[in-house]
Design brief:
Layout: H1 7-35, H2 43-58, E1 65-68, E2 71-74, H3 75-82, H4 86-95, H5 97-110, H6 117-137, H7 142-151, H8 154-166, H9 173-181, H10 186-198, H11 205-217, H12 219-222, H13 225-236, H14 248-253
Antiparallel strand pairs: 1-2
Amino acid sequence: MMKPVTVTGWVNVFVRILTSVAGLVLLAASAVQLFGSDPRVNFSGLVVGAILVALPLVVDRLEHFSFDGTGLEFRFTKQVAELGAPKSAGILEESGLARDLEAYSFVYTELTDPAQEDIRKDLLDRIVGKASALSVSRKFDPVEVHALFAAGSPVMRVLVLGLMEGDPALLDVDVLRSGLTQSRTGNEQFHALKLAYRNWCRLPEGVRTELRGLVATDAYIQGDADRRQIADDIDKLQCRPALVPSGAGEKATR
């Protein structure tokens, strides 16, 4: 015999439906702004809308936040610190970027419908832009940043590439090579290509030759229009030989 639905149960169902509808409306409005003629996109609207859509589906197992004596603690910040990057965790928390990353991690995990791929991609691109701007104004520890890439989640790996875009001092050839040839997601490979393009002439000639060959033969790069375009732009780059100060060779032989 079917168990009757209580008043509380109906209220619960109604609230979940209402939450989903509100999320869809907010997503639709933000998407129109995103793909329409207005270049200004309501980033918060996209994030909140996506979370509202997913929330009714996962509310019973939502464990992204915890409360302790210090108040609200974000899981993403804890992960960064536990991976051996406490300084980076502090900067991400202070800047508010940790909050955006935690929200995106939720969206990335729960909104897996291919129809929402463009929205997920735009959200992450904007977070990467914020990370790039942050590393211009704040000093990150290169050792911590490289450790985050090696042991981090797909989202964290893309975050690291964004930090390197803003601060070339963080650039690491092994990270760049991994992002191009061992990327966890297409977005990671896309941002690795952008990073390579922006820093191409900073790389040693031997590394440029190696990466050029890897990029030219990678099926995922060649099969995606956006990534292939950056690869083509890289192939056209011409780097001037490093200038040697006058008399440097003479001093070395004395």
